[in-house]
Amino acid sequence: MTPRSCVVLGCARNGTSVSTAVIAGLTGHRLGPALLPPDQWNRGGYFESELVNAINDELLGRLPSVTPWVPAPRHRYLSAVPADQVAFGPAPEDMRHSMAELTGQHPFCLKDPRFCYTLTAWEPYLDDALRVCVFRDPESAARSLVRFGSEVSAVPIDREIALEIWRLAYASVLSQVSRGEWLFVDVDTFGATRTRKRLEAAIGAPLAWHLFDASRVGGEPGRGRADLPENTRELYDDLLARS
Description:
By secondary structure, this protein is an alpha/beta fold. It is 40% helix and 7% strand. The chain has a four-stranded parallel β-sheet with strand order 2-1-3-4. The chain is globular. It comes from Micromonospora haikouensis.
């Protein structure tokens, strides 16, 4: 049986890389050409295609970010766009051709945090591909974004900005759930039997759980929620309920 194609999305620094490694590690999913190399921020690799990133970065460049800077090209995964402002006109012909090629080789597993905003532009090409939304607790994600953003952003990212990047990314995701089939996964539960069974059943194949390093990602679901801004806490509770 051929494993199901999928798209993996979630705010940056939320476990999408390890999730993609687990999904694609044994299944033969096609990740796209020219994968990003590992670096000090992700020593296990990103599992992102440079072509997918380039398409999504171009699309995101059309949207207004409410962060206090305009994210530089290649770093637009740090955008923060209100869901009601996410809209795309017709894509150029060469972009449409690339989208069709990338999704025409089954099974595919395309991963990019930018999909939180750009997935709607890919919808004509996804057919029955599973949308896998990965998240972690916002406080841990924000701490990681603050450290990571200090290296790549023109303006330092503080906790407030990081939480807003997190909130708006997932608010955009939730605005799209009426299209296609979705699976929400709390990466803090990757060690749990229930999560593993859900993901394997949805993909239709045994997955590479040996690639999951619990010392790097994972913890108590729902931790740190008491100190979150109300709108972030409510969104986090929604994600937890869906997972």
